[in-house]
Design a protein that fits this description.
Layout: H1 2-9, H2 15-26, H3 34-58, H4 66-80, H5 82-100, H6 112-162, E1 168-170, E2 176-179
Antiparallel strand pairs: 1-2
Length: 184
């Protein structure tokens, strides 16, 4: 009971969240920082729009033009996380609404068919972003656990070597695994 009261008296801080975010960024190369994902998402949506417009003018158009934009959302999510993915999804929805959902060139003036396309795109993009975020969080936890295991292993080895008694560690088959410095 005292522990609960003590925890309730402490002010709510964002420090644990900031620490987790800092640790997760430690394991990323610079090109995978989330802030890089926003301009990359913007550029990829623009590239998809150019490809979509060229494809619509020269070739047989897709039945659902948002497929290429959804692929961009997946790519941005896997590389840069949930924030840039949601930004990319919002840009993609605006592009779909303006260019591909009839009536063309007007935002928000569409029928049920257009609404179903946009809602489907939004739901799929959101689910992909959440699942990829969970995958990234699991990856960071695994890296942290690995680093912690390596640190504990090094501490154990240092302790083992610093012992003044001679110690030999062997398994059930009588195979020697470790010999301390004093035993050597």
């Amino acid at each position: 009971m005292r522990l609960i009261q003590h925890q309730l008296q402490q002010p709510l801080t964002l420090q644990p969240l900031a620490d987790w975010h800092h640790r997760s960024l430690m394991y990323l190369p610079r090109w995978r920082y989330p802030l890089v994902g926003y301009p990359v998402g913007l550029l990829l949506v623009g590239l998809c729009l150019v490809i979509g417009l060229i494809e619509a003018r020269l070739l047989i158009p897709f039945s659902f033009p948002g497929l290429l934009l959804l692929f961009v959302v997946v790519l941005v999510t896997l590389c840069w996380g949930v924030g840039p993915a949601l930004f990319t999804m919002a840009l993609s929805m605006l592009a779909l609404d303006y260019l591909y959902v009839p009536p063309f060139g007007i935002l928000g003036n569409y029928g049920w068919n257009g609404l179903v396309q946009l809602v489907t795109f939004a739901v799929v993009g959101f689910v992909i972003a959440v699942l990829a975020h969970q995958r990234e969080a699991a990856r960071v936890r695994a890296l942290e656990a690995r680093q912690e295991a390596i640190l504990q292993m090094r501490q154990l080895e240092a302790t083992f070597e610093a012992m003044s008694d001679g110690v030999v560690v062997y398994d059930r088959k009588a195979q020697v695994h470790h010999v301390s410095y004093a035993a050597r």
